[in-house]
Design brief:
This protein has about 150 residues and is mainly alpha-helical. It is built from five helices and two strands; from the N terminus they run βααβααα. It has a two-stranded antiparallel sheet. The radius of gyration is 16 Å and the shape is globular. The termini are far apart.
Length: about 150
């Protein structure tokens, strides 16, 4: 059950580390274009993009700055699944930088980090992060499908 009394403001260090690990390929992409880089084209979903950005900001804020004091610190299954999500994400970036751009790669690049964030929110029993993570995932997936898969 959700209770505001279980939450406190403070830095969730593992949430910050997870966010930074996810951002590394994005930072590289901003600085060094990939071959056949279709992700630099103008978005055809500007309205959805505004909601996506809002949900992303809410996710980052709640994942990093909100702690559930009743949460268990470690659960091996979640750690493994988060790790597999990150491996999938980095593998997708490596393939994308090798010049391969297809529907599968774009779905992996959109959804693998979202899955890692959602799993972390579940692990930390962080309902606000989970909610914003699900909303971000939905809009991020829609963005990727409309802009890069069916276009």
């Amino acid at each position: 059950m959700f209770s505001y009394h279980n939450y406190k403001m403070g830095i969730e260090w593992w949430g910050l580390i997870l966010f930074l690990v996810v951002m590394i390929p994005n930072i590289i992409w901003f600085k060094v274009p990939a071959p056949n880089d279709i992700m630099r084209q103008e978005s055809v979903t500007p309205r959805v993009d505004k909601f996506m950005t809002l949900f992303q900001a809410m996710l980052i804020i709640t994942l990093i700055l909100l702690k559930n004091v009743k949460a268990v610190s470690v659960h091996p299954a979640y750690i493994v699944l988060i790790g597999l999500s990150l491996i999938s994400y980095y593998t997708g970036w490596i393939i994308y930088y090798r010049g391969i751009s297809n529907a599968f790669i774009h779905i992996v690049l959109a959804d693998a980090p979202c899955l890692a964030f959602i799993l972390f929110a579940v692990l930390k029993k962080n309902l606000p992060a989970l909610t914003s993570g699900v909303l971000f995932t939905a809009t991020h997936t829609y963005f990727a499908v409309v802009n890069f898969v069916i276009k």
